[in-house]
Amino acid sequence: MTDEESDDGNGFELKIPALKDLLTEFELGDDVLAAKEMELKQHQTDLKSSGITAELRDDIILTKDVQKELLNSNMTMQKDYLASKLPGSLSELNSVVRSNENKLYLR
Question: Could you tell me the residue ranges of all domains in the chain?
Answer without folding.
Answer: 30-88
